[in-house]
Amino acid sequence: MKPHKTYRYRVVDVFTTEPLEGNPLAVFPDAADLSTDLMQKITRELNLSETVFLVPPTRPECAAKLRIFTPGEEIDFAGHPTIGTAYILRDEGIVSKETERFIIEENVGPITISVDPGPSPKLWLTTPAIRSEGISDKKTAAAVLGLKESEVLDFAPETLNAGGNPTLLVPIADRESVDRISFDTSAWKRFKSEHPGPACIFAFAPTPDGAYSRMFAPDYGVWEDPATGSSTGPLAAYMMKHHLVSSKAGTTFHSEQGAKMGRRSILHVRIHGESGSDGIAVGGHVTPVIEGTMRL
């Protein structure tokens, strides 16, 4: 029998200042000797929406490289793992707490992190380039969400992709309709027969503060996600396109997500440049909750 080895890990709740709210994330700060297969098995064992394994960067300008896994597969980029790991890098001293801007490496490439300092710092990522992957019809989107077609606003649902995570954005009439969503697996399978490849569906209602949101990602092994940073940049782009929020440089708003799950998350957005021409930043707070070891 080979000897066991222990691996230290931490769990933080992302996009919240309250323990046991937000989106939980596990981070293994020293995972250089773990195989890809073992990383995937650990992620399934923990059964969170994502787990991050820190390995040495391949780019000299980057503080660390993140390998991000869902229970279903490794992914190239994700928002709440980026924000949560940025917190861990500062808290572990890998990045100085005096540093207000640094770069991390993900499979998608370098991601810039900025920090609003203070007793409870707010951390921000710069969303990768966003591209459109097509328009869908309201009837199909409503069927997937278990809603009436009349509960979908009169803007075409659209799939936007930032960093390799295609997101079908669906505008909903009000918060109450968002809370009534009952995801229809059969309707999703019919949609996927015409739109192959992994994707998620992000439903939101415009609010005075921004948006009230829910996201479903069964293709990634995540039934419903409490907070989805990689979809929030595309959400901002979609809302600006349809004049649901201002596209002026300096615009800020937030998306409230996960409330229906009992994991209320607040994802903040900053628009840099007109219509995000200088980037869309997504940020939030992080709350540490667990420190542990895994014996393998």
CATH third-level topology of the largest domain? Diaminopimelate Epimerase, Chain A, domain 1
Rough shape? globular
Low-confidence stretches: none
Number of DSSP helical runs = 6
Question: Would you identify the CATH architecture of the largest domain?
Answer: Roll
What structural class results from the helix and strand content? alpha+beta
What is the N-to-C order of secondary-structure elements (H for helix, E for strand)? Answer: EEHEEEHEEEEHEEHHEEEHEEEE
State the name of the first-level CATH class of the largest domain: Alpha Beta
Helix content: 10-25%
Number of domain modules? 2
Question: What are its keywords?
Answer:
2 domains; 296 residues; Diaminopimelate Epimerase, Chain A, domain 1; alpha+beta; 12-stranded mixed sheet
Note down, in words, how this protein is organized.
It is a single chain. The chain is an alpha+beta fold and 296 residues long. It folds into 2 domains: 134 residues, Diaminopimelate Epimerase, Chain A, domain 1; 130 residues, Diaminopimelate Epimerase, Chain A, domain 1 (Roll), CATH 3.10.310.10. Helix content is 20%, strand content 38%. It is built from 6 helices and 18 strands. Strands 6, 7, 8, 9, 10, 11, 12, 13, 14, 15, 16 and 17 form a 12-stranded mixed β-sheet that branches. It has a 6-stranded mixed β-sheet with strand order 5-4-3-2-1-18, sandwiched between helices. Strand 15 and strand 16 form a beta hairpin. Helix 3 runs antiparallel to helix 5. It starts with 5 loop residues before the first strand and ends with a strand.
